[in-house]
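re: ur question from yesterday

yeah so i grabbed the chain u mentioned. its 996 aa long if i counted rite. heres the sequnce exactly as i have it in my notes:
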Amino acid sequence: MRLHRLDITAFGPFGGSQTVDFDELSSAGLFLLHGPTGAGKTSVLDAVCYALYGSVPGVRQSGQGLTLRSDHAAPATRTEVRLELTVAGRRLELTRQPPWARPKKRGTGSTLDKAQSWLREYDATAGDWKDLSRSHQEIGEEITQLLGMSREQFCQVVLLPQGEFARFLRSDAEARGKLLGRLFDTHRFAEVEKRLADRRRATEAQVRQGDAELLADAHRMQQAAGNAMELPDLAPGEPGLAAEVLGAAAVARSTAREQLTIAHSRLSAAESAQAAADRELADARELARLQQRFTHARERAALLEERADGYRQAQARMERARKAEAVAPALELRDAADAEHREAARAEARARDLLPETFADAGAAGLTAAARRAAEELGGLESARRAEQRLTELGVERAELDRQERADDDVRQEAGAWLAGWDTNRAELRTRIESAQEAATRAEQLAVRREPTERRLRAARQRDQFAGDTEDAQRQVLALAERAVEARAHWLDLKEQRLNGIAAELAAHLTDGEPCAVCGASEHPAPARKSAEHVDRAAEEQALTAHQHAEEQRTEAERRLGVVREALAAATAEAGDTPTDQLADEVAELERLYEQARRDASWLHPATEELRRAEQEHERRTGIQQQAALRAASRTTLRDTLDRERALLEEELAQTRGAADSVAARAAQLERQAALLTDAADTARVAEDTAQRLKDADARLADAAFRAGFDTPQAAADALLDDTAHRELQRRLDAWQSEEAAVRAVLAEEDTVAAAQQAPADLDLAERAAGAAERRTRDAASARDAAVRRCTELDRLSARSAAGARQLAPLREEYDRVARLAALTAGTSADNERKMRLESYVLAARLEQVAAAATVRLQRMSSGRYTLVHSDDRAGRGRSGLGLHVVDAWTGRERDTATLSGGETFFASLALALGLADVVTDEAGGVRLDTLFIDEGFGSLDEQTLDEVLDVLDSLRERDRSVGIVSHVADLRRRIHAQLEVVKGRAGSAVRQRGQ
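ran it thru and got these structure tokens back, copy pasting raw so excuse formatting
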């Protein structure tokens, strides 16, 4: 990798644009980067790193790149870094712009523009730059792949920070491991350690879980066996646990089967004893039942004897009720007649209360005569009703005449007002019609002018479009022609390569003993071999096909270009040279005038129609005035006639209605009086009829009671029973008879009488004996069932434990294997004598390479005195692998690097940094690093040592390298002529460059 040019704008302390020509600086091989503190020396290196990786080293990168912008930059200047370099034989240009809070174009405030990146490659054949990508991710991947280093590795290898390597010399193994791991990317080995440890923990957890499940089954088997099973004294994960559990389970199963056989025998004996006890209990219960039945029958017989008088009284009461049932119809008839008479009397009283006092003592006949007289008077009022209704109609007609008169007055006034403005309105409408006719004529004239102008505008737009298409087609033809040339050159190159290696291609078809197709020899002692760059026929034909396809595309593009040019000429002939905007303005003006004329002409028809409707309205309103005058004359005659008829009707009605307000009120009085009289007469006749029927019912009731044997009708009524009382009395009689028959039947049973003659049954003794036998049987059955369940559960758990042990065996073997590997890579295994982790082992090998590469330069810098060596010794109780010692040739002793003086530490760390750069470069795939930067530290060297160090750095030019030294030492400005000075000022920093 070689840097050529760096352009910085508004970056860090640089407020404006600065340029660094690395080609000029690198021509001397060694150049100096110096300047006062805070001027921006480190910012130059940060710009290189930012151009390559899009970020700067360490804590200086924050805020998504917003802090990279210079505080001295103008608001309208955007931050940009452009780097031109050569890497892997390719000359590239990288341009990066961080996010930018620029001022808004409109209004106040700022808006945030996103970060931008460009990657271009110089094409020596075309002599121009070619765009490769504008994607941040693609550019980052491309640069990382070309350099073979991450940003951290680049900062350690190309931008050599001496302070860190001085700390590296004095630090312990852990700190060295962190730095080396970051540079050599050994996290994959640490990941291997982690994955092995994770896998060990995972398999250990699975084994422990499997052992825990076995122990859980063992505890369940112990509970099922009644704690007669002994559990193994082992924890989950310990070897031999499965065998111990399975052995204990076998012993528990054998013991459980012996207990099951004993339980079966005990259950059979208990069931036989229970059957005998149940038979004795059944016999005792039957004897006790018969004895109790006999005693209860004797008690029931005595109770019947005590209740015999009540039974005879109930029989007599039932006989009287049967006799009274013959009188029941007469009683019901008399009660109905009495209720009917009472209701009729109440209705008569209510009707008489509504009549005047003059009718209080009148009979039914008198009330009927009065009702007939009121009806006759009501019939005489019918003609008066019609006269009164006509009088009302006359008032309505007179009001209608007044309303019509008011309406005609309004119509005459409205028509007169409208007709007064008729001449003015007609003149205005005729003026509008004439204006609309003139506008229609103008619209026809503008339409004739508009069409050719629009055709010219369309042609002008096509002319502009075809002009742009012609330029695009020309560019496409040039690009396709260039691509066709490249495809032809590629095909010819491949063809030439194939011809150069045609001997190897022919040799591939040689067969021992067969003649060669070229020389004819049958022996082939040294046939040509295909090289890695050999091109076969398929590759050549593919390149030829690509060349032919490119030629076809170029020909098609040229044809399309000719078509577009012809269309452009036709459009130009139609439109002329008039600009499109001018034609568009002319068309717009004509369109505006045409639309205005059309809008004015559109009023012709509405104005004509409005004039026609106005003339019709004039005729209608003139006729309305005349008709209203005729109606007014006829209304005067009709009003006089109605007034005379009304006076005659009012005189007639005054004589007819008397003191009433109206004929209708008088008629309502007569109608109500006639209705009340008629109702009172009807209720009086009904009351007389019901009184006679009640008298007849009393006579029939007295005769029926005498024939039934009762002294009075009331006695017969008292003897009657309702349905509920009758059913209750009959139930009592039937129950007494049933009880008497049941007692006689029980006392006549032979087995009951025989049982009563025996001694009383001892039921308690028999029940206690049967209960004891049942408990013994139940206990025996429970013991048998428990033994069966115990055997079943032990068999199930034993089978599950055996299956679990079989499944766990491969997992335990895997755990043993993984645990050994994890302990070995972690440095905790006894087989790992130096207790060295896998990552430390890899880093130790890298450290050996770095120490060997650093020693070559350290010996020159120290005049052959010091040599760096790697040490595997353990430091205290820690692990070994990353020790670093220095061998002093003057004393012949090996000592720690921390014992070096300040100047010795500097050139030792410089040698270590250069050696590390070589190793990392080789590790990155051998990418050549032609430009290096070395940070401060030269001030700690004496003059002789400084000369030796500079000689070593100057020797790097032998490998065509250029080395930039960042230092404040004034003597270096005298020794090194190629310099890049950073000068700071109020407006920001600037760079000054001096050549050789």
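noticed a couple things. The two ends are 22 Å apart (CA to CA). also The first helix runs from residue 22 to 26.
anyway ttyl
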